[in-house]
Amino acid sequence: MKIGILGTGMVGRAIASKLVELGHEVCMGSRAAGNESALAWAAQAGEGASEGVFADAAGFGEVVFNCTAGLGSLDALAAAGEANLAGKVLIDVANPLDFSQGMPPSLSVCNTDSLGEKIQRAIPAARVVKALNTVNCEVMVEPARVPGEHVVFVCGNDSEAKDEVTRLLGEFGWPAERVLDLGDVTAARGTEMYLPLWVNIMGQLGTPHFNIEVAREVDSVDRQGA
Ligand SMILES: NC(=O)c1ccc[n+]([C@@H]2O[C@H](COP(=O)([O-])OP(=O)(O)OC[C@H]3O[C@@H](n4cnc5c(N)ncnc54)[C@H](OP(=O)(O)O)[C@@H]3O)[C@@H](O)[C@H]2O)c1
Question: What are phi and psi of 123, to 5 degrees?
Answer without folding.
Answer: -130, 75
